[in-house]
């Protein structure tokens, strides 16, 4: 399986043997790994470690995996894989409703866990490998270039970051406020109408005269639709 360098994984379980098994196995695969024996420790650790993937045991003393999942999803950009000793539908549904991205029942295959980790990373962090393709659009984050059907677009640094953010989140409606926060930063003090100016420029450079690629949803924001 192809490895992607720099993936940070937070493993959380109150059983020391399982935690050690996960830590040693994941480090051996080339991941950066931190461990926590309970949910509260995991929440505090995530603030500084910034994991790409969190593997959460459901049944833990104090803060259980469900609550930890809920809080992690509120504060971190992280993919969550939940582990449980019970393969019960109710537990699986509850975890998914709280934001979990995947679910595995104990005992589990380490190879399957690896496959699921890589699947989550490819889905949620496509640019960790430096390059990613979304339909006719390709992004090379190392060269800071975006191409449309093989043609490299002439973009300013802000246009690059805006288009990259929108393409990665294609199919999702993005409000002006959210775009400002993610692209310009939460401390940006300017007018949110600057988003309209940059969207107009991107449409020109993409040849999107009919607004079929970058769609405007009145009162809601913008959405990129890819074929």
From TrEMBL:
* Taxonomic lineage: Bacteria, Bacillati, Bacillota, Bacilli, Bacillales
Q: Which CDD domains match?
A: REC_OmpR (cd17574), trans_reg_C (cd00383)
Organism field: Cohnella rhizosphaerae
Any Gene Ontology CC annotation = cytosol
As one GO molecular function, the record gives: transcription cis-regulatory region binding
Query: Which residues are recorded with the post-translational modification 4-aspartylphosphate?
Result: 57
Q: Where are the transmembrane segments?
A: none
Q: Which domain of life is it from?
A: Bacteria
Q: What is this protein called?
A: Response regulator transcription factor
Q: Which residues form the Response regulatory domain?
A: 8-121
Q: Which GO terms describe its biological process?
A: regulation of DNA-templated transcription
OmpR/PhoB-type domain location is: 129-226
The residues that make up the annotated DNA-binding region are 129-226
Q: Which UniProt keywords apply?
A: DNA-binding, Phosphoprotein, Transcription, Transcription regulation, Two-component regulatory system
The record's section on InterPro entries has:
CheY-like_superfamily (IPR011006), OmpR/PhoB-type_DNA-bd (IPR001867), Sig_transdc_resp-reg_receiver (IPR001789), WalR-like (IPR039420), WH-like_DNA-bd_sf (IPR036388)
